């Protein structure tokens, strides 16, 4: 079993990186890739950088270069559901773009032409993630994560997402791009994100204050998920 793990920022990958045994590192196409054993499983951990393009590039590198069997995306997200608190976990049921608009030609808002409107996460990985999170006694919710190349802050962009994507429970800048690549390459994936902010006017200060908490929670969940593949 080969597991690919993507985190956008240093804070999001640093904890797992230092848990990897027999670790080796390479730099490729601007990405930093650490490989070795984590929880007894062969992993390839990549710090992608922020945004859809870099996330898609990193997913493609892991799939084509290392022939990974599954892909997990970790890190932080903005909470859209009123039940969320800082540090809670969101598990992707599916991912979707919130900044793609080809409705002029009959496609749904968020849908890339000739692709599904949403990219479904793997059911088995979702089930494993839920079991791990329950054992860790961390509050979590499963639902749609929407993605765009914008850090959401302020009422106007937040209300736009709530209006056009009412089923979304979290927002980030990478997940849908990763899900899109996994769909194209037929690789099972799941997104495990921890809530760092609530996509409002205080989001920038909250994000930096609570990023480390979010990283700790999502990293802990991933370490436990990996034990299922030993």
Automatic annotation (TrEMBL):
One of its GO terms (molecular function) is methylthioadenosine nucleosidase activity. Substrate binds at residues 78, 152, 173-174. The active site is at 12 (proton acceptor), 197 (proton donor). Pathway: Amino-acid biosynthesis; L-methionine biosynthesis via salvage pathway; S-methyl-5-thio-alpha-D-ribose 1-phosphate from S-methyl-5'-thioadenosine (hydrolase route): step 1/2. The keyword Ribonucleoprotein does not apply. It comes from the Bacteria. Gene3D superfamilies: Nucleoside phosphorylase domain (3.40.50.1580). Pfam families: PNP_UDP_1. It catalyses: S-adenosyl-L-homocysteine + H2O = S-(5-deoxy-D-ribos-5-yl)-L-homocysteine + adenine; 5'-deoxyadenosine + H2O = 5-deoxy-D-ribose + adenine; S-methyl-5'-thioadenosine + H2O = 5-(methylsulfanyl)-D-ribose + adenine. InterPro entries: MTA_SAH_Nsdase (IPR010049), Nucleoside_phosphorylase_d (IPR000845), Nucleoside_phosphorylase_sf (IPR035994). Keywords: Amino-acid biosynthesis, Glycosidase, Hydrolase, Methionine biosynthesis. GO terms for cellular component: cytosol. Its EC number is 3.2.2.9. The keyword Hydrolase applies. GO terms for biological process: L-methionine salvage from methylthioadenosine; L-methionine salvage from S-adenosylmethionine; purine deoxyribonucleoside catabolic process. Residues 2-226 form the Nucleoside phosphorylase domain. Belongs to the PNP/UDP phosphorylase family. MtnN subfamily. Catalyzes the irreversible cleavage of the glycosidic bond in both 5'-methylthioadenosine (MTA) and S-adenosylhomocysteine (SAH/AdoHcy) to adenine and the corresponding thioribose, 5'-methylthioribose and S-ribosylhomocysteine, respectively. Also cleaves 5'-deoxyadenosine, a toxic by-product of radical S-adenosylmethionine (SAM) enzymes, into 5-deoxyribose and adenine. Thus, is required for in vivo function of the radical SAM enzymes biotin synthase and lipoic acid synthase, that are inhibited by 5'-deoxyadenosine accumulation. Homodimer. This is 5'-methylthioadenosine/S-adenosylhomocysteine nucleosidase.
